[in-house]
From TrEMBL:
Keywords: DNA-binding, Isomerase, Topoisomerase. Its EC number is 5.6.2.1. Residues 468-486 have a biased composition (Basic residues). Residues 51-64 have a biased composition (Basic and acidic residues). InterPro entries: Topo_IA, Topo_IA_AS, Topo_IA_cen, Topo_IA_cen_sub1, Topo_IA_cen_sub3, Topo_IA_core_domain, Topo_IA_DNA-bd_dom, Zn_ribbon_TOP3B. PANTHER family: DNA TOPOISOMERASE 3-BETA-1 (PTHR11390:SF20), PROKARYOTIC DNA TOPOISOMERASE (PTHR11390). Introduces a single-strand break via transesterification at a target site in duplex DNA. Releases the supercoiling and torsional tension of DNA introduced during the DNA replication and transcription by transiently cleaving and rejoining one strand of the DNA duplex. The scissile phosphodiester is attacked by the catalytic tyrosine of the enzyme, resulting in the formation of a DNA-(5'-phosphotyrosyl)-enzyme intermediate and the expulsion of a 3'-OH DNA strand. This is DNA topoisomerase. GO terms for molecular function: DNA binding; DNA topoisomerase type I (single strand cut, ATP-independent) activity. It comes from Culex pipiens pipiens (Northern house mosquito). Residues 1-235 form the Topo IA-type catalytic domain. It catalyses: ATP-independent breakage of single-stranded DNA, followed by passage and rejoining. It is an enzyme of class 5 (isomerase). Residues 51-75, 460-490 are annotated as: Disordered.
Length: 500
């Protein structure tokens, strides 16, 4: 655009910043072509056009300046050759594009239908797909025009700004290569408010400005509406700026090379690094993605199991030997896959109908203390098995040293909780008849009652006036609704919950 503006100020071409591609009916095209017929570069083509000149095809009249048009003849030496003459040549020479034409030593073979041609060589080439190339300046301009971002006068300014601010760098072939700063900024905006980096945001403002220009909208109303939107977005952005800090810290500080390899990313299948310093997080240097992790506690790989939704390796979080613990998927923890799953939740809050680690298959009953939580079997704690509320701090230790504990589809007729099966080795079975496997309700089955105990942290809560003080586990049984809020076990209900 700088070269085009120089040609314009020197009188060689018309005003270059225009969106119009249609000539007015009174435009003297013949006079323009006559100017070029004496050119040593393309004079013959100009004479040929004058001999049999057709009306140009219809274009778009944007109501600004006419299409870019040569205004006087220039020679290669006059414009010092190089890029200046190339731009001028591109504007004039539309009959034959030299870089698209056949070379003089190439022949166009006149093939005939059903003709047999001798094949010189047959090859099977092995290759693999790759990412698309970076956008060139011209491709970016086309996309900006498509989405209604900027005008002919402002588009080059926008591109120049992102270059000067080091968001992108100009690469070979005039491609725009994002810098680390640009990538981190975009990822940060996507974490906080994705609308800020979508083309629809700027496009919507441009459309409202067009309505003002055409007298279809009131200037003050549009201004008030736009300012209020950006005021609220600014306040929300400031409140969540820590998400941006995490990305900058991981990219531009020594943290990008610190941490220890912990689990595989579900996107690139490479190991992510676990950074334990607050706020703890996982960072994938290949995908340049950062995933927040639970505060405090210990995070470890959970038997190299994978989430069926995104292929990320599951992790087990624990708040100590006698504290809460649960498995979690790093991606689902940051991006909940279901509407009724809160952010920063583990698998014990996931309603996936078939995943072996989900609330749906491991939920036993509604919590005995709070109204919102569900007691979920914690398989990460084996052989120290326990039920953990996915909302409050209730923990129920059970079936110590059992080889396996399963949550069954059948529910208890007395209290509505899901039945469980406990399996022991012969030398460690606690059952009086030396049977190694029994199934029943964890609250009502007499053989299970001695094997179940509450965590003492809950007793501390009771001492502070918590609900249900002094009642035993079994004493809270009956049909008081322990099964209330428990996930459905019926397969059709599971599918309905999954799709809805």
């Amino acid at each position: 655009m700088q070269i085009a503006e120089k040609l314009y100020t020197r009188g060689y071409i018309s005003y270059p910043r225009t969106e119009t591609t249609q000539y007015p009916t009174n435009f003297d095209l013949v006079g323009v072509v006559k100017l070029l017929q004496h050119s040593s570069e393309f004079g013959d083509e100009a004479k040929s056009i004058l001999h049999d000149m057709n009306s140009p095809r219809k274009g778009n009249d944007a109501g600004d300046h006419p299409p870019i048009t040569p205004m006087k003849l220039a020679s290669r030496n006059e414009l010092d050759g190089g890029d200046t003459f190339r731009v001028y040549d591109y504007i004039c020479y539309t009959k034959v594009m030299t870089w698209q034409a056949f070379a003089k030593n190439e022949l166009v073979v006149p093939f005939i239908v059903n003709e047999k041609v001798k094949i010189n060589d047959v090859r099977l080439v092995e290759s693999q797909t790759g990412p698309p190339d970076y956008l060139t300046e011209s491709e970016l301009i086309s996309l900006m025009e498509k989405h209604g971002i900027g005008t002919d006068a402002s588009i080059p300014v926008h591109i120049n700004n992102i270059c000067q601010r080091n968001y992108v760098a100009i690469g070979g072939g005039r491609t725009l290569t994002p810098t680390n700063l640009g990538i981190v900024l975009v990822h940060g905006y996507q974490k906080i408010d994705p609308e800020l980096v979508l083309p629809t945001m700027r496009s919507a403002v441009e459309q409202q400005l067009s309505l003002i220009a055409h007298g279809s909208a009131d200037y003050r109303s549009v201004l008030k509406h736009a300012v209020e939107i950006f005021r609220l977005k600014f306040l929300y952005f400031v409140q969540n700026i820590s998400n941006m800090d995490i990305l900058f810290e991981a990219t531009f500080s020594s943290l990008s090379s610190s941490g220890k390899a912990l689990s595989r990313c579900g996107k690139c299948r490479r190991y992510m690094k676990y950074i334990q310093s607050k706020p703890s997080r996982l960072h994938c240097s290949t995908c340049d993605e950062t995933y927040t992790m639970p505060v405090k506690g210990v995070v470890r790989v959970y038997r190299e199991l994978k989430c069926p939704l995104d292929d990320f390796e599951l992790l087990a979080w624990s708040n100590g030997a006698k504290g809460k613990s649960y498995p979690l998927c790093p991606y689902c923890y940051n991006h909940p896959p279901f509407r009724d799953m809160a952010k920063n939740s583990g698998c014990n809050s996931c309603p996936h109908p078939t995943c072996a680690h989900s609330l749906t298959l491991l939920g036993v009953s509604s919590c005995i203390e709070c109204d919102r939580g569900i007691l979920v079997l914690d398989c990460t704690s084996s052989p120290k098995w326990k039920l953990v509320c996915n909302f409050c701090d209730v923990i129920i230790n059970c079936f110590d040293d059992a080889v396996k504990v399963n949550v069954e589809a059948e529910s208890c007729d007395e209290c509505g909780a899901q039945q469980v099966t406990a399996i022991y080795k012969a030398e460690k079975t606690p059952f009086k008849d030396d049977i190694t496997e029994k199934k029943g309700c964890i609250f009502c089955f007499p053989d299970f009652v001695p094997l179940v105990e509450k965590h003492k942290a809950v007793e501390m809560r009771r001492g502070q006036g918590g609900r249900g003080r002094g009642r035993s586990l079994r004493g809270r049984g009956g049909k008081s609704g322990r099964g209330r809020n428990k996930p459905p076990k019926d397969k059709m209900a599971q599918l309905a919950a999954y799709f809805v």
